[in-house]
Amino acid sequence: MKALILIGGLGTRLRPFTLDVPKSLLPIVNRPFLEYQLDPIRKAGIREVILCTAYRASLFKHTLGDGRRFGLKFHYIREEKPLGTGGAVKNAEKWITETTVVFNGDVLSGLNLKELIRTHQKNKAEATIALTRVKDPTLYGLVETSPDGKISRFLEKPSWDEVTTNTINAGTYVFEPSLTRLIPPGIPYSLERGLFPQLLSNGRRFHSHVAHGYWMDMGTVEKYLQAHLDILEGRTPFSPAGKRIRKSVWVSPSVRIGKEAEFEGKTVLGTGAQIGDFAKLSGNVVVGPRCRIGKGAQIENCVILAGTHIGDGARLQQCVVGSDCLIEPHVFIGPGRAVGDRSIIKKHSTL
Predict the structure, then answer these.
(1) How far is the C-alpha of 98 from the C-alpha of 184, rounded, in Å?
(2) Domains located in the chain, CATH noted
(3) Count of C-beta atoms within a 10 Å radius of residue 55
């Protein structure tokens, strides 16, 4: 069995952070987002992974290598032009020689992959979709199923009077290799709007598996921040990396913490991070590698990416600051703000 991950998207809803870095390589609690999808693949006993790239494709191999450090073997497939989810699968057709688990690169999930595969095999299905339950199904496309789990209907972003279920497409599928023959070659094509309705109308063996546990479409800056907070709050099956030096502080090598620095909440400090004297980090805070937090700075429920310097007395609340930024002394950055990579915010500014 193999896995295929769709990571060719532009990540426009996550700008400015995806202007230089593909969404799947953005750090979540100081690990590339893609690594959180590799964990369940490895646990399920899958060892070959097909990575379907397009936007800034060369960065993936540079960052991840050939997969050996993850206990996996990677095959990199590049799209010369955007092909959509179905077109990307077709582009990798020569590698899909056996049952393959397909992942949407937007999703952070605690899916039990072994259970999904068992459901697929038990039903002798040609395709199986993982479903998840959501509180507001009008924001998504609904997937209706029969009592035995067969897919019966898709309903795109229904109004409340049309809602019959709260199960939506969770972005993970199990495919038999024969399905790639149904996808037209060389053109943009959607699994969700093209292949899946075709399977339904043709009466193919098309089943579902309702997954339980954590699920998030990591498509916006707000969701990106929330993913960090959820991991620190223990809402996901993932744990912060690093050595736990206090009840709720995790550090990587070469971290320096100044005198009387305070930690009120859960904090992760990346390799080489420096926390100044009398600084206060409260709520859930992730500080990236090589960051410097100035004397007396106050950071609350924030994510600060690698190489950024926060000046003395600065105050940051519920925001995301990109990599290699300079936030000068006594700056205030308020909730919901997103500061792009390499920004300079002059002293005493308010955002």
Answers:
(1) 20
(2) 2-219 (3.90.550.10), 240-345 (2.160.10.10)
(3) 19
